[in-house]
Write the structure tokens for this entry.
Amino acid sequence: MDSEIEVKIRDSVSSLGYDCWDLCIYRSGRVVLTLTGVHVGDCAKVSRALFADKEIGEVLGRGSLEVSSPGINPLLRTAAHFEAWVGRTIRLKVTGVPQPQSGLLLGAGQILSLPLEGGFFHCPISRIKEAWGCDNKEEKKV
């Protein structure tokens, strides 16, 4: 569940016309905000707007703020992230599996499905340690 400040940051970002891909607030006070479809100028604009908000600025003043784009190989952490990558290539590190797995994400929900040589790899989201989207220009969304 999002904290009150997370909701306020997400709402502020949305009111500026941007989409929040991810938001992490660390105990150290570091805030990492990842936005989709942005350039450097957009990141600066969002940063200034967040610091200008009295309540958000007070929280940000205790730590640091990093505003960026998810890049071409974004970290996938939420169900919405996985849904956005269905039909595209992802790479996973899974608890109990020694090697990272990668493949075309066929479905997302409680279990992710990837076709592998000789069959399929089905993985509950709860076992994923890390996952990234892979920008593969050859792969087209199905």
